Amino acid sequence: MRSPNELLFFFSALGAFNGFLLSLYFAINAKKKIFTNYFLSLLLLVLSIRIIKSVFFYFNPHLSNTFIQIGLSACILIGPFLFLYLKSYAQNDKPNWVKHVVPYLGIMTVLGTFYPYVEHQAIWSRGIVRVIYFQWFLYIVLSFKYIQPILQKIREKESLKKLEVWFLSIYFGVAFVWFAYTFAAYTSYIVGALSFTFILYLIILLLVFRNSQETVFFQEKERYKNKTIDQETLDLIRQKMTIIVEKELFLNPNFTLEEAAKELKVTKHTLSQYVNEVLGKSFSNLIKEYRIEKAKSLLETEKNYTIESLGYDSGFNSKSTFFTAFKKQTGLTPTEYQKQHSK
What we know:
Layout: H1 4-29, H2 36-59, H3 65-74, H4 78-90, H5 98-114, H6 121-143, H7 148-155, H8 162-182, H9 191-208, H10 231-240, H11 242-246, H12 257-264, H13 268-278, H14 283-301, H15 307-313, H16 319-330, H17 334-341
Helix pairs in contact: 1-2, 1-9, 2-3, 2-4, 4-6, 4-8, 6-8, 8-9, 12-13, 14-15, 14-17
C-alpha cells in the first residue's frame, strides 16, 4: 500500500507531467498550427515548469539551486502568455508578443547571471519572487477584460459555448494557481501543484466530453474559412428567416439556434454561418434584436402593462437582461422610450 507521501507526490507531479504533454500537443497538433494556440502551449509549458519545481523541491529540499531558479523564473511568463492567449483570440489577430515576453526574458537573464539563486537566496525569496508574483497578478487583472463579455452572458443567463467555458477555465485556473502560491505560507507549499493537477483535469474533461459538432476550444474564428454558402442557399435562408419574426418564435425565452435551424429546415452550421458572416452578428444578438423590436412595439401601444411584464412578453427571461439589452440598443431605458413614443 502506498504511503500518503507517495500518493501526494504522484498526484502533484501528474498535473505537471500532463501539462507538458498538452503543451506539446497544442504546439504541434492544435488545428493546423493556429498561432493563438502557441500562446496556450507556452502558457502550459511555463506553468508545468513552475509546478514540477514545486513538487521536487517539496519532496527534496536539497534540489539543485539552478533548477529552483529556472522554476521561479518561469513564473514571470505565466501572466504574459495568459494575456496574449486571451487577447489574440478576442481580437482575432496576432498581438505584439515581443514587448510582453522579451523584456522579461532579458530581466531574468540579467538577474540569473548577476544574482544567481545559489548565492543570493535571500534576495530572491524576499524581493525577486514577490515582484514576479505581483507582475503575474497584474497580467491576471489585464486579462480580465477579455473574459468580461463571457461573464456578462452568464449574468444575462445566456448559454455559453464550450469555447467560452474553456477560456473561463483557463483564466480562473491560472488565477487560482497564483492564489495558491501567493498564500502558500498559510496552507502548504504543495497546494499550488495539487491545485494545478485538479484544474488541469477539469479542463481535460472539456476535451473528452465535448460535442464534436460544436466549436472546440482549439478552433478560432476562422472556422468558416473555405466553406462558402452558395447563392441559392443564401437566398433560401434569407426568405425563410422571416418565419422567425412572423411566427414570433423569438418570444420563447429558450429559443435556440438548433430550434431555429430545424424550423427553417437548414443545418445548424449553415444557419450559424449565415448569421455570423452575412448578418455580421451572433445568433443570440439577432434574437435579442427581434425581442427589443417587439418590446418597442408594446411600449408604444400598451398602457396597462408594467415595464417588467413587457420584458417577459417580449421573450426576455429576466428584468435585468431586458433593461440591459434595451438600453444598449436604443440608448434609452424602457421607461424613457415609452415616454417619448407612447401614442
